[in-house]
Specification:
By secondary structure, the chain is of the alpha+beta class. It has three domains: about 90 residues, lambda repressor-like DNA-binding domains (434 Repressor (Amino-terminal Domain), Orthogonal Bundle); about 70 residues, no CATH class; about 80 residues, no CATH class. It is built from 13 helices and nine strands.
């Protein structure tokens, strides 16, 4: 629309205010025709059905959804046609808000009163005892789900059971005693035969039992070499663990095979080897000494929450 046509349309719109017979739809239709714009092209530009524009231009506002839609559509058409929307808006009906009826009473009753409204949420209509019981049940369930097991707490912070330690100690002592007695009973016989053949006298042949007596009477003489042999055998692995208190260790080789998984008490030792790299986990690093290839290995830099994890390559 040219400036002259727009000014003419605005002048006619202002004149329509003085002419009661002029309508908003007539002003919009006249402005569109003066701009040389087809109603279908205008509908395509606004992306609205042609029937709605026809209803607006023919002042059949009852065919439109509501007065707000009619005013918005008219304002958009004025903006496209570059027409002053004020005269058109004055001719369109405004949004009417129905007044409150005088006979309607607004309830101000509180939900805390005995006669509370049943439109309140279910949570507020439940008895307090039920709400408290449900809350306690939820808290107890969460505590059971996230509480660590008693066995893990004992392993991490506690000492091994006394009966288990006593059973292990008695079994180890009995095994060591039986081995010592068996060796002491076998060793005097070759010693007695050798002495009898060398001396050829009855006095010298009677002396081997006297020499064998201290060996059988003092078990510590043979027990010490056994303990040393066991310690040397445990120290021959690629990684050796020596404990000062309850702990647990796990060693896995490069193929994923578990070479060692053991719960250990204080004063014990264990070793492991396998295909490198070895993945090592130490349950209580503060109670465990580690030797890697015969050298002391520091666990402190690798420890988190008293659990050390490292690899041997």
């Amino acid at each position: 629309m040219s400036d002259d046509a727009r000014m003419a349309a605005d002048a006619r719109a202002q004149a329509s205010l003085l002419n009661p017979g002029t309508s908003a739809g007539a002003l919009l239709r006249e402005a569109r025709e003066n701009a040389g714009l087809h109603i279908g092209a205008l509908a395509a530009t606004l992306k609205v059905p042609v029937k709605k524009l026809e209803a607006l231009e023919s002042d059949r506002l009852e065919l439109l959804p509501d007065a707000v839609f009619a005013r918005a559509l008219a304002a958009t058409v004025c903006r496209i046609l570059k027409l002053d929307p004020s005269p058109v808006m004055r001719l369109l009906p405004g949004q009417v808000t129905p007044p409150l009826q005088a006979g309607i009473k607004i309830s101000t009753a509180s939900f805390d009163r005995p006669g509370m409204s049943w439109h309140a949420p279910l949570f507020f209509r439940m008895p307090k005892a039920v709400v408290v019981s449900a809350s306690l049940l939820v808290v107890a369930t969460l505590a059971l789900l996230f509480m660590p097991s008693l066995d893990r707490l004992k392993l991490k912070f506690g000492k091994p059971p006394a009966n288990a330690a006593g059973t292990m100690g008695s079994a180890g002592t009995a095994s060591l005693t039986e081995t010592t007695i068996a060796r002491a009973a076998v060793e005097p016989m070759p010693l007695a035969g050798a002495l009898a053949a060398a001396s050829g006298t009855s006095a010298m042949s009677a002396s081997p039992p006297a020499l064998a007596t201290p060996a059988s009477a003092v078990p510590g003489a043979n027990a010490t070499p056994l303990l040393l042999a066991d310690t040397q055998a445990a120290a021959t692995g690629l990684v050796v663990f020596k404990t000062r208190g309850p702990t647990w260790v796990e060693v896995t080789d490069a193929g994923g095979v578990v070479q060692l998984r053991k719960t250990m008490g204080g004063g014990e030792s264990a070793s492991a080897s396998g295909a490198l790299p070895l993945s090592v986990i130490v349950g209580r690093a503060d109670s465990t000494d580690v030797l890697v290839r015969g050298k002391s290995f520091e666990l402190a830099p690798l420890t988190k929450d008293n659990v050390a994890r490292f690899q041997i390559k």
